[in-house]
User: Which sequence fits this backbone?
């Protein structure tokens, strides 16, 4: 069922459809679904109910090796890497269309697997994935080399070539969309890919692989390996015949990717990692109500399981009380945890019991550190089977508290105050992370100064989380050194070659 049809279903119809799901749970290698060589599996669990959804193939180094061999064979054969650009474009456009046409299945798979509200799948993740494949599809016949200026006796040109086999290791918070952000540019640039989804949300990856073949993609070009990070992920990142790892996930594991590259074949690595995004709300904010609504959405959307979640609200002391009172009001009206398969639900469970425990432990830490709990702080009533945490706000937060320094990755934010803009910017920058930031101001000089001085890969002015495929996505400092979306990404999945000819 396509996107528009899926959007018209109510909770009852969605539950009925979810009960009929029979997800494919094996690896996808060389155009076929295959079990793990050793027959091992792991469980994937619905975090809203605690029910086991499926037993999924648990890959190890031998399964990864089979996928790498298939990807290399396909790359060398030229079935994709040498296919005419217009033909490759047709496959990628058709693939994007098939994702849209199978929106219901994608929405049900990711929502039951990781808990996000189905309305987010239908309005953000699926349109985002479709747009990603269309955007990178459009680049296919525009990836160009260069002829440089030389003496008349010489001819020099630069080829931009694919890398070969690209491993894409992705997290669980946007399973389909993160897989699209990583695989689409790699495929557009003629590489073969091996997608390793997170073990918490493995199911939609197989549907992607199946639809890529249905769209006319050749066998061996799009492979999927399931399994645990330290097993399948590590084997992929250590493999001697993988040319690049495109990684999205935690900073801790992002650092390991660089270690694995050094321990193996010096493969290229790009990392998109964690964040602790500051939102600076100045005293001359153009419209406080709008800024507060964005602050609320920016932390509670997707249960706060967002790399750029606005988890530090740096507010001018003059407007602190008004800001907090409006925040509490809007948060209560906008977000309340519930059944993620109900299209009216705004907040689902966290991804696992472990994540729920981790987030609740940060709430305890915040209280012990002396921050004041102004909202939430516990599990919502009547939802005990699921991994829920209520929308939570701390006030009186200081930047040296752990709740202001560490990525919580849940629906928890804190208000810090400042008196001078320079102090607000210094506070924003006092972090190991630098993924994103925002500033709300009516003063054009303040806006430009902040945009220049904030140490982050993305700065929003009088908005939050706006952007399209042309805007870059990537961080400064320990938020990683890759870039997703945007044309620049193509430079991370290609390599240049200099060809110098002496003409005599
Ligand atoms: P994670 O680092 O635990 O896992 C990410 C992926 O790495 C998974 O597929 C996992 O199986 C794999 N992995 C784990 N250990 C591994 C190892 N030793 N070797 C190889 N692979 C391994 O992250 P997560 O919990 O899945 O996702 C949450 C994190 O992702 C947060 O820190 C969040 O900020 C980050 N994230 C960043 C962006 C961005 O664009 N910057 C986007 C989404 C999520």
Assistant:
């Amino acid at each position: 069922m396509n996107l528009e049809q899926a959007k018209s279903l109510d909770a009852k119809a969605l539950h009925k459809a979810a009960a009929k799901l029979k997800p494919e749970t094996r690896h996808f290698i060389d155009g076929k679904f295959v079990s793990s060589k050793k027959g091992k599996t792991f469980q994937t669990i619905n975090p809203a109910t605690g029910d086991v959804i499926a037993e999924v193939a648990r890959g190890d180094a031998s399964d990864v090796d089979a996928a790498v061999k298939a990807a290399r064979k396909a790359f060398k054969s030229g079935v994709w890497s040498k296919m005419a650009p217009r033909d490759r474009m047709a496959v990628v456009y058709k693939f994007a269309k098939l994702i849209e046409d199978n929106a219901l299945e994608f929405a049900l798979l990711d929502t039951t697997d990781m808990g996000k509200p189905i309305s987010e799948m239908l309005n953000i993740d699926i349109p985002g994935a479709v747009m990603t494949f269309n955007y990178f599809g459009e680049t296919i016949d525009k990836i160009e080399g260069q002829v440089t200026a030389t003496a008349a006796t010489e001819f020099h040109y630069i080829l931009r070539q694919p890398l070969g086999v690209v491993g894409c290791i992705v997290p669980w918070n946007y399973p389909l969309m993160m897989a699209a952000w990583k695989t689409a540019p790699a495929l557009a640039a003629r590489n073969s890919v091996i997608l390793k989804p997170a073990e918490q949300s493995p199911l939609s990856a197989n549907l992607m692989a199946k639809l890529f073949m249905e769209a006319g993609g050749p066998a061996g070009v799009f492979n999927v390996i399931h399994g645990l990070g330290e097993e399948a992920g590590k084997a992929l990142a250590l493999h001697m015949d993988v040319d690049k790892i495109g990684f999205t996930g935690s900073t801790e594991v992002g650092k390991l990717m660089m270690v694995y590259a050094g321990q193996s074949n010096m493969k290229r690595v790009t990392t998109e990692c964690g964040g602790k995004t500051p939102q600076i709300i100045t005293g001359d904010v153009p419209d406080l109500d709008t800024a507060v609504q964005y602050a609320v959405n920016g932390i509670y959307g997707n249960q706060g399981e967002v790399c750029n979640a606005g988890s530090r609200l740096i507010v001018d002391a003059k407007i602190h009380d008004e800001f907090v009172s409006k925040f509490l009001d809007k948060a209560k009206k906008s977000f309340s945890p519930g059944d993620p398969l109900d299209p009216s639900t705004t907040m689902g469970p966290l991804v696992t019991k472990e994540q729920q425990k981790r987030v609740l432990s940060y709430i305890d830490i915040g209280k012990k550190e002396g921050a004041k709990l102004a909202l939430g702080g516990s599990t919502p009533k009547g939802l005990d089977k699921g991994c829920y945490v209520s929308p939570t706000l701390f006030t009186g937060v200081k930047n040296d508290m752990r709740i202001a320094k560490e990525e919580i990755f849940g629906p928890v934010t804190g208000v810090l105050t400042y008196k001078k803009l320079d102090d607000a910017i210094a506070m924003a920058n006092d972090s190991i992370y630098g993924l994103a930031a925002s500033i709300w101001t009516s003063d054009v000089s303040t806006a430009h100064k902040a945009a220049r001085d904030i140490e982050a890969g993305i700065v929003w002015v009088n908005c939050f989380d706006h952007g399209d495929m042309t805007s870059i996505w990537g961080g400064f400092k320990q938020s990683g050194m890759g870039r997703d979306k945007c044309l620049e990404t193509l430079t991370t999945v290609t390599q240049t070659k200099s060809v110098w000819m002496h003409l005599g």
Summary: Residues 169-173, 178, 196, 198-199, 229-230, 233-234, 237, 248-250, 253, 256, 272-275, 307, 407, 409, 435, 473, 475, 479-480 surround nicotinamide-adenine-dinucleotide (CB under 6 Å). The chain has a mean pLDDT of 98. DSSP finds 16 helices and 21 strands in the chain.
